[in-house]
């Protein structure tokens, strides 16, 4: 009843192509954002902020990044973990070399650095396609992790091979990394950063460059024939995707965990992000958020469930059962809705429009 | 036939000798690099025998990919699951041959269940979705195996001798050390490949399998039951996984890391070509020998543990020249 587009007439192309063409969507998203910005920090506990909202936001950025490459440009990549590690280690080197530079700028610089690495590892995609490419991107994964573990230079010769986030403030006393950073600070910073990046991504994918990615995804030869240069389209997708993923890696290392070793970005991390975009929905920014929420929440729920219903189980048994349920749920979701949660939301919206008179 | 084999007969020794000469030259200039021909051959043989094991894992992948164009990421966890089940059976007091048979039956049952529960509802979905589903199976089997049998490292001993043997003692001083175990493992792998080749070429089911691999719809239209064929293929892949699991398990102990050898089989696969059984075998040998030689002779210069990524980079460089792999079907693209 409330969700109607009847009566909302568009009188210009600009209005017709807005990000949220329906007024209710616009208001809804704004309300959610304002709630997250103004209310959540005061009502949520530190545990909730630290172990659910912070990783959720970080993973959302990573999922948006991978979705640009895999969902919009059709290039399956299993190198996400490696690129996240790039972002983390670049940030560490940059901020220890230049402590006076604002951390926000450092994150962006690390993103650009990762984009360069992404372009290098994206070059094979011009010749290699499909599963062959997916496996080739594993070369990036293993090579990058190896590079960061083997060369102590990357960790400033720390004995444990671990990078620890030094305290950095965004402005004044607003610390976002290090000991002084409160969960609320971290959360607010991440929220604004993620919203900004999501906006950038959303606008990129509906611009000319995004359309060229989608053309390449749908059929690369046909796209080439109508005048899209595969070199530019594929490499720009790799660059933009790596930029997002690199930033996500930096945020993961600096804001979420605060100290991290290269092995935290192993191949299982790549699969985790890939699951997010598959469960959330390929080729959808909203889907990246939904998928990230699902994959972040699921293990937490699974590990708390036995305690909640009063079962006592040994820890390793719980871990194994978690694996099982996780795998089964993945298969279940793929069978029920191969196009992901974003598609479910779309169907729900269609239904809402007609509710309560579906005929 | 002869024109296809001849380049290999000439090329492989040429590459081996060429690389050896190169390393010898480098070792003259750089005394940190230890090089003798006997040592080089020893490393090469050890690597090749290791490669046979990679081939076995890759074989399971290829079987399923050929018949159903599903990239079965779960092959690695099938290896682990099979090995765990077999060890569990032996711990129950069964003789290992009996345990092997029971486990084979379990793997066939597993294949039937996967076909019914996972594959059938996902018919006609894009490849990437099926690939993801197999990753789901990977997690499930990993969890299931360890829930049932525990996650400790277990020994699996089926009586393969482990003594080192020396060959070519006349040619080289001290001979070349070869691991007895690896030779027998390679022999078992060879026999398995032979049986599979006979099964594919000479039996009625094998012919149907090849027909399905060639063209699903054409096979369906002449009356080949696709579901049965898929169940058979997954069963065969399960049994290959079992054999792999027995060999790897008795070499390294049955443990969680067995599931990760699947990752090592991936570069083998794309090097050989996703659809080719000979490709899987030759690719395995090349990757095994290549990474062993690289680890021993290159790590002096660029750091240790390059085994982690060397296979992938090798495969990537190769694919840049030939995107369909060594023996893969030529990829023809149309609009």
Walkthrough of the structure:
The complex is a heterodimer of chains A (359) and B (335). Chain A has 359 residues and is mainly α. Helices cover 71% and strands 3% of the residues of chain A. Chain A contains 14 helices and 4 strands. In chain A, α5 crosses α10 and α12 packs across α14. The mean pLDDT of chain A is 88. By secondary structure, chain B is mainly α. Chain B is built from 12 helices and 2 strands. Chain B has a two-stranded antiparallel sheet. In chain B, β1 and β2 form a beta hairpin. The longest helix of chain B is centred in the N-terminal third of the chain and has 32 residues. Chain B starts with a helix and ends in a 14-residue tail after the last helix. The mean pLDDT of chain B is 83. The chains are: A mainly alpha (359), B mainly alpha (335). The interface between A and B is large, with 47 and 51 residues.
In sequence order, what are the helices and strands of chain B, one letter per element? HHHHHEEHHHHHHH
Query: Main interface pair?
Result: A-B, 47 and 51 residues
How many helix segments of chain B? 12
CATH topology of chain B: ABC transporter involved in vitamin B12 uptake, BtuC
Low-confidence stretches of chain B: none
Output the CATH topology of chain A: ABC transporter involved in vitamin B12 uptake, BtuC
Radius of gyration of chain A: 21 Å
Strand order of the largest sheet of chain B: 1-2
How much strand of chain B? under 5%
Principal-axis shape of chain A? globular
Low-confidence stretches of chain A: none
Number of domains of chain B: 1
* CATH architecture level-2 label of chain A: Orthogonal Bundle
Q: Which structural class best describes the helix and strand composition of chain B?
A: mainly alpha
Estimate percent helicity of chain B: over 70%
Physical arrangement of strands within the biggest beta sheet of chain A: 1-4
β-strand amount of chain A: under 5%
What class, by secondary structure content of chain A? mainly alpha
Q: What's the CATH C level of chain B? A: Mainly Alpha
């Amino acid at each position: 009843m409330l969700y109607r587009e009847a009566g909302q007439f568009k009188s210009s192309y600009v209005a017709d192509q807005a990000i949220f063409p329906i007024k209710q969507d616009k208001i809804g998203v704004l309300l959610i954002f304002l709630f997250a910005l103004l209310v959540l920090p005061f009502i949520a506990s530190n545990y909730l902020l630290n172990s659910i909202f912070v990783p959720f936001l970080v993973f959302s950025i990573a999922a948006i990044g991978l979705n640009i490459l895999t969902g919009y440009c059709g290039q399956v990549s299993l190198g996400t973990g490696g690129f996240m590690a790039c972002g983390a280690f670049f940030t560490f080197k940059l901020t220890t070399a230049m402590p006076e530079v604002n951390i926000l700028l450092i994150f962006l610089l690390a993103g650009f650095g990762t984009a360069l690495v992404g372009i290098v590892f994206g070059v094979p995609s011009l010749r290699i396609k499909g599963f062959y490419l997916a496996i080739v991107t594993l070369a990036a994964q293993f090579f990058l992790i190896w590079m960061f573990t083997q060369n102590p230079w990357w960790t400033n010769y720390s004995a444990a091979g671990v990078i620890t986030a030094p305290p950095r403030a965004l402005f004044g006393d607003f610390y976002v990394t290090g000991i002084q950073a409160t969960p609320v600070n971290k959360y607010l910073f991440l929220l604004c950063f993620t919203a900004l990046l999501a906006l950038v991504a959303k606008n990129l994918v509906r611009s000319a460059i995004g359309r060229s990615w989608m053309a390449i995804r749908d059929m690369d030869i046909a796209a080439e024939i109508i005048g899209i240069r595969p070199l530019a389209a594929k490499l720009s997708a790799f660059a933009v995707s790596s930029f997002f993923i690199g930033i996500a890696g930096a945020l993961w290392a600096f804001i979420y965990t605060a100290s991290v070793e290269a092995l935290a970005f192993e191949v299982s991390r790549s699969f985790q992000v890939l699951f997010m975009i598959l469960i959330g929905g390929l080729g959808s920014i909203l889907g990246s958020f939904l998928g990230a929420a699902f994959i972040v929440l699921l293990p937490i729920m699974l590990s708390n469930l036995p305690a909640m219903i009063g079962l006592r189980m040994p820890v390793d048994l719980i871990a194994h059962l978690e694996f099982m349920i996780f795998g089964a749920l993945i298969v279940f979701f793929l069978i029920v809705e191969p196009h992901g949660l974003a598609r479910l939301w779309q169907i729900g919206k269609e239904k809402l429009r007609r509710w309560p008179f579906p005929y | 036939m002869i024109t296809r084999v001849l380049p290999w007969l000439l090329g492989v020794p040429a590459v081996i000798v060429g690389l050896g000469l190169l390393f010898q030259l480098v070792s003259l200039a750089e005394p940190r690099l230890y090089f003798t021909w006997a040592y080089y051959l020893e490393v090469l043989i050890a690597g090749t025998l290791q490669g046979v094991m990679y081939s076995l894992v890759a074989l399971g992948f290829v079987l399923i990919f050929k018949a159903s164009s599903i990239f079965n990421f779960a092959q690695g966890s099938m290896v682990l699951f099979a090995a765990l089940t077999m060890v569990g059976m032996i711990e129950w007091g069964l003789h290992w041959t009996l345990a092997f048979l029971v486990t084979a039956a379990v793997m066939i049952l597993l294949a039937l269940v996967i076909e019914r529960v996972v594959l059938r509802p996902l018919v006609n979905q894009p490849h990437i979705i099926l690939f993801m589903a197999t990753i789901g199976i990977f997690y499930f089997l990993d969890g299931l195996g360890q829930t049932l049998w525990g996650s400790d490292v277990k020994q699996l001993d089926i009586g393969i001798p482990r003594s080192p043997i020396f060959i070519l003692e006349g040619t080289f001083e001290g001979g070349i050390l070869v691991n007895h175990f690896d030779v027998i493992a390679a022999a078992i792998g060879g026999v398995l490949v032979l049986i599979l080749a006979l099964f594919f070429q000479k039996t009625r089911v094998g012919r149907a399998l090849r027909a399905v691999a060639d063209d699903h719809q054409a096979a369906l239209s002449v009356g080949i039951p696709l579901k049965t064929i898929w169940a058979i293929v997954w069963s065969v892949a399960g049994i290959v996984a079992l054999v792999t699991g027995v060999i790897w398990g008795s070499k390294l102990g049955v443990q969680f890391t067995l599931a990760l050898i699947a990752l090592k089989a991936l570069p083998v696969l794309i090097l050989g070509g996703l659809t080719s059984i000979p490709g899987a075998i030759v690719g395995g040998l090349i990757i095994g020998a290549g990474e062993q030689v690289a680890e021993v002779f290159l790590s002096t210069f660029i750091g240790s543990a390059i085994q982690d990524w060397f296979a992938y980079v090798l495969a990537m460089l190769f694919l840049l020249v030939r995107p369909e792999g060594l023996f893969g079907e030529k990829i023809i693209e149309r609009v």
